[in-house]
Amino acid sequence: MAGFANIGQLVSAYDVGRVKYTTWRKTPAQATVSGIWTDLSMSPGNPVPNYYASSPLVAAVLDGREGIFHGGDVLPMTKHVARLTSLSTTAAANPLPKVLQDYLLYYPFIDQSSTDEQLMDNTVTLPRYTDGDGVKVMAVLVAAQSGGATFTMNYTNQDGVAGRVSPLATCNTATSSGTLVTSAPATAGTQGPYLTLQDGDTGVRSIEGVTFFTPDVGLICLVLVKPLCTTAMRGIDAPAEHNYWIDGPVLPQVVDGAYLNFIAHPTGSIAAAPIHGDATFVWG
Questions:
Q1: Of 2, 180, 205, 239, which cross-links 37 as Cys (Cβ 3.0–4.6 Å)?
Q2: Distance (Å, rounded) from C-alpha 50 to C-alpha 182?
């Protein structure tokens, strides 16, 4: 069990108060589309919505205190997700798989209408998982598109090799802010919630450029994230609870300073659907 040698040590951490219980609530304003992933960090509620609003094409980080709050720094100990619970009494919001992620770095306001290579400013670098291994990239819509644009990204991989180029990605036709534009249930060229990397690569340290080959009218943000764990609501009759120290051998680790939030995979529109949840973090 990562962070703890046995259940006894985990229980002892609870007994001495090395635990943080927090609640969260999101009520999306955007009309989501069945089978297309959406970024709940942009939705109103608690924590406050994140709009990726900073200087265009300049790498930036999010303040961990403005995400799902997991407490203060704990080094030299390690902090872990012990439990997640979520519930919505809105039928359209169920079932709803979710991925809890650490949002590491983002590149805002990439213009889908330009076919010139758009170069990124990497003065700010990865604050966590600095080797890039396991770091994924999601493309978040921040201004409405028409759909069908194609693009690649030029990036540095987990070994520090620059000049890597992702396979050609095709954008879906969803127009709501927060949509992950490379996800769609049955659209040729889409790649799921995360961009596909060049063969052999296991992660991304930075993005150097983005090139659109088929232009559109929207704006996207490329976000480097580290997925931590998954959970899912299943119905309106009971909360969905996931105890990671019971249901699996590994407690997902949360690094000091992490900005935590969810992406979700709706079965229909979750606009105006209150989604409530809580989380328990423990360290030792």
A1: 180
A2: 20
Spatial neighbors of 223 by CB under 8 A, at least 6 apart, are 39, 52, 103, 104, 105, 106, 107, 137, 138, 139, 140
- Backbone angle region of 232, left / alpha / beta, with phi > 0 → left and psi within -120 to 50 → alpha: beta
Q: Minimal CA–CA distance to 99: which of 41, 32, 29, 181? A: 41
For the chain, what's the residue count?
284
Q: Is the whole-model pTM more than 0.85?
A: yes
Residue of 135, 277, 112 whose CA lies nearest to 210: 112
Element (H, E) at 111: strand 96-111
How confident is the model over 48-83, as pLDDT tens digits? Answer: 999 999 999 999 999 999 999 999 999 999 999 999
Residues whose CB is less than 8 angstroms from the CB of residue 4 and which lie 6 or more positions away in sequence, other chains included = 10, 13, 80, 251, 284
